């Protein structure tokens, strides 16, 4: 099943490595509280734009490509730029996932991050990071994903871990629960409902900090448009828009 094979790589490449906050590469994930969810096809190209809590000029722009390499592997690459004219983070990721058994996939990814400002007294910094993970499935309905990676810019806690359980009880519904450990443990809960495989409704929330999210998407043949909004009780809203080509 294409969705099953895609999950491992999307999980590896779809988790951004910015210092300021974690971001998702699509409004679909953002609308579910940041959950990493399996896609319904493999070969795709996504371009997105995210405005961080409506802060002046603070935005995240990204592009991600995922494609199969034969029957047993998937390759992917992404690039994102976060910040404003005075501050910027640039992230580049390349990864590969391999099916080692009908029910098990493993993958690795490499990440490069560059941080700089317009302040002449601030020295630009750059880091290399890595992620490894595995994903198992049961009957194409229940997915288990485990990830581990490095955070070389975080001196006290240079490691991160991520666990996810996704379940599709019927073809129209997908439910996701995640736990992520970085500086502290963050839980995420999300759900997606699709109507006639054309219109999608999504909602979710996350802890530490407590945020709520919702959104919708429209997919027609080779094109889909997704809109997501994450809300914070103090900082306000973070709108997110994605355009995906299914090749």
Task: Describe this structure as you would to a colleague.
This protein is mainly beta. It has one domain (2-246): Beta Barrel (Porin), CATH 2.40.160.40. The protein is 6% helix and 60% strand. The protein has two helices and 14 strands. The chain has helices spanning 2-13, 27-30; strands spanning 44-51, 59-68, 73-83, 87-101, 104-117, 125-138, 142-150, 159-167, 173-181, 185-195, 199-206, 211-220, 223-232, 236-246. Strand 8 and strand 9 form a beta hairpin. It is globular and about 55 Å long. Mean pLDDT is 84; it is low at 1-11.
Question: What is the strand arrangement across the widest sheet?
Answer: 1-2-3-4-5-6-7-8-9-10-11-12-13-14
N/C terminus separation: 17 Å
The helicity comes to under 10%
- Helix segment tally: 2
Supply the CATH architecture.
Answer: Beta Barrel
Order of helices and strands: HHEEEEEEEEEEEEEE
Sheet of most strands: 14 strands, antiparallel, barrel
- CATH topology name, in short, is Porin
Structural class: mainly beta
CATH class membership = Mainly Beta
Global shape:
globular
- Average pLDDT confidence is 84
Unreliable spans:
1-11
Give the radius of gyration: 17 Å
CATH homologous group name: monomeric porin ompg
The fraction of residues in strands falls at over 45%
Tally of structural domains: 1
What's the β-strand tally?
14
């Amino acid at each position: 099943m294409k969705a099953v094979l895609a999950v491992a790589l999307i999980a590896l490449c779809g988790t951004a490595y910015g210092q300021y906050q974690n971001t998702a590469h699509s409004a679909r994930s953002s609308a579910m509280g940041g959950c990493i969810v399996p896609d319904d096809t493999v070969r795709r190209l996504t371009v997105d734009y995210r405005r961080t809590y409506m802060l002046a000029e603070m935005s995240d722009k990204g592009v991600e490509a995922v494609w199969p390499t034969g029957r047993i592997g998937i390759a992917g690459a992404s690039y994102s730029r976060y910040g404003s004219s005075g501050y910027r983070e640039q992230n580049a990721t390349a990864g590969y996932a391999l099916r080692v058994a009908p029910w098990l996939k493993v993958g690795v990814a490499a990440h490069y991050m560059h941080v700089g400002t317009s302040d002449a007294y601030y020295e630009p910094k750059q880091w290399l990071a890595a992620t490894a993970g595995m994903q198992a499935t049961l009957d194409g309905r229940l997915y288990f994903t485990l990830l581990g990676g490095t955070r070389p810019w975080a001196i006290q806690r240079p490691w991160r871990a991520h666990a996810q359980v996704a379940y599709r009880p019927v073809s129209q519904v997908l439910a996701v629960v995640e736990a992520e450990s970085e500086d502290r443990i963050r839980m995420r809960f999300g759900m997606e409902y699709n109507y006639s495989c054309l219109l999608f409704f999504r909602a979710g929330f996350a802890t530490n900090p407590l945020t709520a999210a919702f959104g919708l998407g429209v997919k027609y043949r080779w094109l889909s448009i997704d809109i997501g909004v994450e809300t914070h009780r103090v900082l306000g809203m973070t709108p997110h828009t994605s355009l995906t080509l299914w090749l």
